[in-house]
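Reopening this ticket.

The earlier resolution said the output was attached, but the attachment link was broken on my side. Pasting everything inline this time so it's all in one place.
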Amino acid sequence: MNRSHTGTGSLLVRVLVFPGVRPLDVSGPVEVFMSANDFGGRYRLSMVSVGGDGVTTSAGTRLHVDGAAEDARETSDVLLIPGGPGWKQMLKDDTLLEVVRGLDAKSRCTVSVCTGAFLLAAAGLLDGRRAATHWRHTRELAMRYPAVRVEPDAIFVKDGRMMTSAGVSAGIDLSLALVEEQSGADVAREVARDLVVFMQRPGGQSQFSVRARAPHIRQEMLRRVLDAVAADPGADHTLAAMARRAGVSSRHMTRMFGEEVGMTPARYVEQVRLEAARAMLESGDDPMSVVARRSGFGSPESLRRAFVRNLHVTPGAFRARFHTTGVTGNDGVVVPAAPARRGAGPARAVRRAGAAAPTGGTGT
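Inline output:
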């Protein structure tokens, strides 16, 4: 079924695709905009490429396009620049960068997903602006393009008419924010419920699996300690207990954490416990006392302090889900979620629909 709106007053979403583009960078945002049409949105889609030929994605699938990017004349309301695993090669493609500049000049709002931010930066479109990209690449974006102010933990960033998002599925978050801004919060909430996603997900990119983010650990004894913490966050993981398990002194354990993990033992344990608590709050209705005990924080007050200190939101507000995408009408950096207003019915509706935050390391 063609869900693209064709009537007057529609909003044009133009997507630039290229060989090796990541499919979800394209399909996630497109699904948000097209789903919005089922709930009162007025979006139409145009997919273009350099030269007008179809492209093969990084997954090997084929994308057909509506025409050549060079022939685009109509001003778009949204220009979407996705990313792909071969982004470093794309930066050497002067023709592609020139096309990006040309399409941006004919767009009211230009957005990127994941490593698409590198294309915008290479085209000079992010100079002096804040930006986000996949957490694996934030440092490189900042080093390659010092005129860009990189927000390393942001899910997405809005700076004027430019928006950039973190990795892969974060393009869905960004697109929901645009739908809210252009078509209203009610439409955006219905899309979020339909797709079973958050209106505004909790935390920033730092939420993605603490154990998975740890670098390769050379010491087998330390790997066992890290795995034990991840397997049972509620167990006794004091420095002394971890040192005993590894058969080393507390001082040596602290030194190993600093050298191989890049943080203190206490900080690592807290991050794992936060991750466990988030999962419990997202998927169940256990009392805070139970969540605090099972995740290893012990008491609801300790749990609350850890959430406020790290995520800038209380556990109760985290559980309540989120009332909006957080940026309507404002330039902003979306990192932690804004607490839902008391009694916010639509936020509860999202939770009843079974929405769950992605927890993989792809930068959703």
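Reporter confirms the inline version is readable. Residues 265-283 form the longest helix (19 residues). Residues 336-364 have pLDDT under 50 and may be disordered.
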